[in-house]
Amino acid sequence: MYNKKRTRLILFLTIVPLVLHAQARRDTVSADSIKTLKNVIINAKPFQEVIPVQSLSGKQLENLASHNVADALRYFAGTQIKDYGGLGGLKTVDVRNMGTHHVGVFYDGIQLGNAQNGVTDLGKYSLDDMEALTMYNGQKSEIFQSAKDFASASTIYMKTKRPVFEDHKQTNLLLRYKTMSVNYHDPSFRLEQKLGDKVSLSLSSEYIRSNGQYQFRYKRNNQDGTVAYDTTATRQNSDIKALRIESGLYGKIDKGSWDAKVYYYDSKRGAPGAIVENKFADGYRQNDQSFFTQAFFVKDFTEKYKFQARAKYAYDDTRYIARDTTSILGETVTEGAQSDDSYYQHEMYVSVVNMYSILPIWDVSLSADFQYNRLDATRRGIQTQFSFPQRYTALFSLASSLRLGKFKVLGSVLGTQVTEQVRYNAKAPDKTEFTPALFIGYTPFKQNDLTLRAFAKRIFRMPTFNDLYYTMVGSSTLRPEYMNQYDVGFNYAVPVENGFLDKFSIQADAYYTHTKDKIVAAPTGNLFRWMMTNMGQVRGKGIESVINMGTHISKLNLAANLTYTYSESRDYTKFVGLEMSSYGDQIPYAPWHSGSAILNAGYGSWNLNYSFIYVGKRYNGNVNNIKVNEVQPWYTHDLSAQKSFTVNHYRLKGTIELNNALNQHYEVIYNYPMPGRTFKFIISMEL
Amino acid sequence: MKKSSIKIGIGLWILLALISCRKDEVIFLSSTKTVAQPASEGNIEGFYLLNEGNMGMNRASIDVFNYRTGAYTTDIYSERNPTVVKELGDVGNDIKIYGNKVYAVINCSNKVEVIDKWTAKRIAKIDIPNCRYVTFYKGKAYVSSYSGPVAINPNAEIGFVAEIDTATLEIKRKVTVGYQPEQMVVTNGKLYVANSGGYRVPNYDRTVSVIDLESFTEIKKIDVGINLYGMQIDSRGDIYVSSRGDYYGTPSNLFVIDSKTDEKKMSLDLPVLGMCLVDDLLYFYSVEWSYLTNSNKIAYGILDTKTKKIISDKIITDGTDKKIMIPYGLQVHPETKEIYITDAQNYVVTGYIYCFTPDGRLKWKTTAGNIPAHFAFIYKN
C-alpha cells in the first residue's frame, strides 16, 4: 500500500512540471496577451536585493491553506518550523538550522522580543490581517533601517495590511467566520475608516475557540509485517481560547508617513505534553496576555537626507500551571511535579535612523537603538530568590551602500552594549560587541536579469534571562553565542517573452554557518540539574533553491512555486575535551532534504490552491544518528478552493480547505503527534 | 536555457519523490554484540541494565548481559513485548529482581513494570504516579513516590511509599513519608526512606523516615542532612545515606545511621553520589560542578565499612576514568568483584557501559542506551 502511495506521489510530482513543460511547447501564441501575474506565489525580487529573500504576500497568502504565520513560513526554503502539534502547541521557526534564537521576527518594522527565553511563538500570529511575510537570510537588503534590523542572522518581517479605499469609499468592513472539523470557531472582523485625506484607521479583532481534540495514531509492525500494535487516541489538553484586538492609525505627511499601532492578545490554552507509555494526556496549562503599542515615522527631509524614528512599549504576562492529579488507593494525589509560575515582562524601545546620500551612487546610514527589558516573576511554592533581571541594550549601526556599475556593495558594522541589573543573585557582566557584515551583488549582463550575490556576516545572540538567571540552571557568566554565516547565490529571471510561461525565475544559494560558543546545557552529577555553558559548536552547510513560474491559458492563471533545501548541520561539541558519542552527527530535527510546492489556478472568481510540504528523515532529541533515534519523513498535501460572489453590492467569499489530505499521522517533534486530515470552511463578507 | 531550467526542476522533483518514502514503523529491535569471554562459573547468569532515557523521549530501555555467552544485547523490551503500545516508557528510575520477577520503576510513565526474569515478557503494570525506587521484604515490594496530597502550595506535597504484594501484584497499603523520597533499605521489620525534598530548593528535607512494616506507619524521622538520596546497609546494620548537598555551600556527604538505635552516628565528610556495597566494601563516586572551571570534579573511592576508612581513592586504575564524562551507574559483581560503571555522557546522547577487573583495569566497554544507570543481577534459581 505504501509502495502504491509512493508511486502515485512520484507520478504526481513529476507530471506537474511535465504538463507545464508540454503545454509550454504547444501553446506559445497567447503568451503576449496581458500578463496579469496576480498569482505569482513567492517573489524573487529584482536587482536591488543583494540578499537572498523570499516573500509571500496579498492574494498568495489568502489562497494558501494556512492561517498562522508559522504555517506559512514552512513554504520558504531553508526554514524549519518546530511544531508541538495542536492548536495550543508552540510553533517556532528555525532558519538554516542556526536555532530559533538567531531569527529576528519583526512586526510592522519593530522586533518582537522575548528577553526571558528568546522564543517567539509564531502560531499566535494570524494571517488574516497580514499583507506580506518576508524572510531574509542575513539581513534586509537596505541600509535605511534600525540597528535591530542588522542584529540577527536571519530576519522575518510580518507586514500587516494598510487601509486601501476604492473610489469614494470611506469605510471598509470585512466580516469573516472560520470553522474546522476539530470543534473550531473563529469569528473575526476588520474595519477600515478614512479619517481625512491623509489619515486612516484600522480596527480588527479575532476570537478563536477550540477544544483542540484530534485523533492521533501510533502503529508499529513486527518484523514479519504483522501489526504489533495500532492505537488511535484523542489529543487532550490542546484546547485554546484566544482573543486578538489590533488597531492602527496611518498617516501621510509631506515626503513621509507615520503609523501607530496597538495590539492586544489574550489566550488560555493547554500546552499538550509528550505522548509516552501509560500517559496519553497531561494538564499543563498556559495563560498569556500580551500588549504592545508602537509608532513609526519616516520623512525625507531633503533630497539627500532621510530620517526614521520608531518607538515601542510591550508588556507580556505568562502563567504556567502544572497541576496534574491522579488517584491511588482511592486518594487524589499529584502526578508530576507541580508548579504555578507567572512571569511579567516589560520592554521599551526607541530607535532613530539617519541616511545621507553622499553621491547618487553612495549612501551612508547611522542608526541608534535603545532597549530596556525587565523580567519579574511570582512562583508559588518556590523558595529560591528570583533574580528580577533588567537589561539595558544600546545598539549602533553604521552602514553604507555603493552602486558601481554592475556591482552593488553593502557593508555594515553593528555595535552593541549590554548592561544588566539584578535584585538578587549574581549579575552578568557588561558586554560590548562589534559585528560586521558585507554583502555584494553583481549583475553581469545588461540584457539579462541575472544577479550573483555573496555575503559574510558575523552576529551573536545574547544569552536570555533564563540562560543567565534560571534558578539552579542559569549561569550569569555566559558569553554571547556567535554565528558566522557565509553565502553565495544567484537569482535569474529567465526571459520568457516569447514562451508559454509568463514568468520563470530561479534562485539558489549555498551557505556555510559556524556557531561558536553555542549556549547549551552541560550535565552535572544530577540529572535534574544542568548548567548553561558556552561549550557548543556546530557547523552547517546547505543549498536552497526556489523555482517560481507563472502562466495563463486564456482566462486561466496558473502559478507554481517549488523549493528544495539540502542542509547539513553537525554537532562538534566537546565536553571537558572529550568527544560525545554523537560527535559529528547531524543536530536534532535538522532534515537533510526538505521542500515545498505551491500550485495555484485562478479562473475568474474561482481559485484553487494545492500545497505540499516535505520534510525528510531526521533524528530526534537523543542526537545520535542511529536507528532508534530516527524520525520518519513527513509530507502533507493541503487543498483549498475559493469562490467569490457579489450579492447586493456585498462581496462574499467562500473557502473550503482540506489539510493533510492523505491523513498522514506524523510528528514534527518526537512524541508530539500532529493532526490528521482536517476540513476547514471560511465565509467572509465585505461591506 | 528555459528547457534546462525545467529539467533541473523536474530533476529536483524526482529526487524529492525518491527520498520521500515513508515506511511502516517497525518495533524497536535489539542488537547483540559479544564483548567478553564466556564464563561458566558462579551463580550469576548475567544482568539487566536499565537505561533511563531523557524525559519526554519515551526511551527508557533495558539491556541484558549474558555471562555465559559474553554477549551484550541492547534494548530487548520492545522485541519481547511487541504489543505494548509505546514500549517501556519514559524515564526508567530503578530495576530490581525479586523471585522470578523483574521490577522496573518507570518514573514519568507513572508505573512499575513487572516482567519475567528469564523471558522479559510483561507480567503486569502497576500504576504508581511519580514512582522512584523499589525494595523488597518478606514477599512485599516497597515503592517510593514523590506524589502527595494536592496542596495550594505546588511544592508542598509529601511523598509516600506503597506496599505491593509480590504474589498478586496489587497495591495493598501506602504510608506518607517525607518530601520527595528516594532510595530505601529494610532491616528488622523496619523500612528506612531517604527524603530528598528536591522540589523544595533551598529548603530541602533532611530526614530519613523509619517505617514499621507491620503497622505500616512512620515511627520516627531521623534528622540526617539535606537532600538525601542513596542508601546502602552493611552486614552489621549500619545504614549509609548519601546527601547530594545543595550544590553551593553544603557539599555532598555520606552519613551513617545505626539501625539498632535509629540515630545518626557518623558524618564521614565524603562526597558521594553513587555507591555500591559488596561484602564490607563500599564503592562510590562523586561528581561536583565547579563554578570556577565550568566543569565537573569527579572522584572515586572505596570505603571499608568495618573501619569507616577509605582504603582507596581509585576504582579505575588504568587511566580509563579520564574518558568517562559523567559516571552514573556503579555496580560490583558480588562474586567476581568485577566493576561496572556507566557513562551517561551529557544525558542526551547514547551512553556507554564499562567493565573493569577487580583491580580496576578496563575489561570491556560497549554502547548502551540513553542514560545507562541501574543494574539487576540475574541469579540462577
Automatic annotation (TrEMBL), chain A:
Subcellular location as annotated: Cell outer membrane
Residues covered by the TonB-dependent receptor plug domain: 52-144
Transmembrane as UniProt keyword: yes
Membrane-related topology note: Multi-pass membrane protein
Keywords for this protein: Cell outer membrane, Membrane, Receptor, Signal, Transmembrane, Transmembrane beta strand, Transport
Molecular-function annotations in GO: siderophore uptake transmembrane transporter activity
This protein's record includes keyword Membrane: yes
Primary localization: membrane
Stored InterPro entries: Beta-barrel_TonB_sf, Plug_dom, Plug_dom_sf, TonB-dep_rcpt-like
Similarity annotation: Belongs to the TonB-dependent receptor family.
Name the UniProt record assigns to this protein: Outer membrane cobalamin receptor
TrEMBL record, chain B:
The keyword Membrane appears for this protein: no
Pfam family, one: DUF5074
UniProt keyword DNA-binding, yes or no: yes
Classification via PROSITE patterns: PROKAR_LIPOPROTEIN
Source superkingdom: Bacteria
Sorted UniProt keywords: DNA-binding
One annotated GO molecular function: DNA binding
InterPro entries to which the protein is assigned, alphabetical: DUF5074, Haem_d1_sf, Host-pathogen_enzymatic-act, WD40/YVTN_repeat-like_dom_sf
Protein name stated in the entry: DNA-binding beta-propeller fold protein YncE
Organism this protein belongs to: Pedobacter metabolipauper
